[in-house]
Amino acid sequence: MATKKNSSNAxxxxxxxxxxxxxxxxPQWVEKALKKATVIELNKYEEELANLLxxxxxxxxxxxxxxxxxxxxxxxxxxxxxxxxxxITSKGWLYxxxxxxxxIYPFTNTCTRCILNGEFHFHKANKPGSGTIGGITRKLLGxxxxxxxxxxxxxxxxxxxxxxxxLVVWDNQNDIVLMAEAKAAPxxxxxxxxxxxxxxxxxxxGEVINLSHGPLDNSSLEKSEFHLLIPQPEGEKWRLExxxxxxxxxxxxxxxxxxxxxxVFSQDEQMFxxxxxxxxxxxxxxxxxxWIRGAAxxxxxxxxxxxxxxVPRPVSWPTRNSGEGFESVSxxxxxxxxxxxxxxxxxxxxxxxxxxxxxxxxxVTIKTALLSNIHAVRHYDTYLKDLQDIVWTQTSNKAVSKVxxxxxxxxxxxxxxxxxxxxxxxxxxxWIAENFKF
Length: 438
What we know:
alpha+beta
């Protein structure tokens, strides 16, 4: 969503810019916005991978239905990863000489292999910028919802919204429209790796030495055999399972990652369960936030977004460019799901603004919700709990302080008809409660 910029020292208005504000004042803006909403177009690779991952999530939770939400969230992370992998370049690789040498393409600022043994080696992550992540996850979240509705036999259409709406869920049979503010991001993204030879160099004395950890370009992308790195528990420790994605073809590479992830997860029926075991442990470590209390967390915690600064911090860990403080393994700007505080605050405002501009005026029934892949694990109580049950109305009577002072027929509206994610749903509306039970 846009942020309205003011020329003076006046505070910024989150979420709505001048053009959108003018648009919202149009009495017919809801109908016009719905006409501008578009179908989320998929190619066969995206559709096939989405269908596979959703089926694997359901299968993974057959013996324990309470795991379905987490299984869907883990599947969504894989779906997002396929999109991230489309942007692999020769730059951004880390050479890890430990054991069998690897070139690693990490998504948090540390060596994926060595961190599982408690060793921090800083390397800049390959995560896209927050603006790019938002665009990717909004589309893919809409794709997942559309597949889930279709799978459950619900006649609901998911559309890419026109500003100021992120996603639209349209119930044509009941003339109901859900306007959703989407705030989504993966918990973790599996690193990629390419086996390589031992790398050497000359020291100051002209002697050949083996290189230690450090950045190294991969100049042979079209000849490299890529591998997913999936951490697997081994007693009290972790080991890495390398899953081959094969060699990326020189032509039609855009959806190579989709087709290869589909291949490896469909060929091995146990693969998703092994991946989910890691994902669930990482989610639990993120949820506990042990690093905040100074405790050493489960090592897979450092593969999650917004995991913070290393604990304990190595002497060699770099300072920030400003020279003030230290770099993080992953900072709060990349928090997973809807757990980024700025996103929560902007989302609250956007839902209220959409509701106030649409609910009292629209000819169709309007629902409003925050939508994500994962709920605000750390920040729900601080930012959302006190607001989740708010209802509002509009009246010109400034003396009203009790509901009984309003006319009997006065309409009341929920601030949130729903706060929706795969991992947790809070619904104040029967339509949302019924349709988002997967």
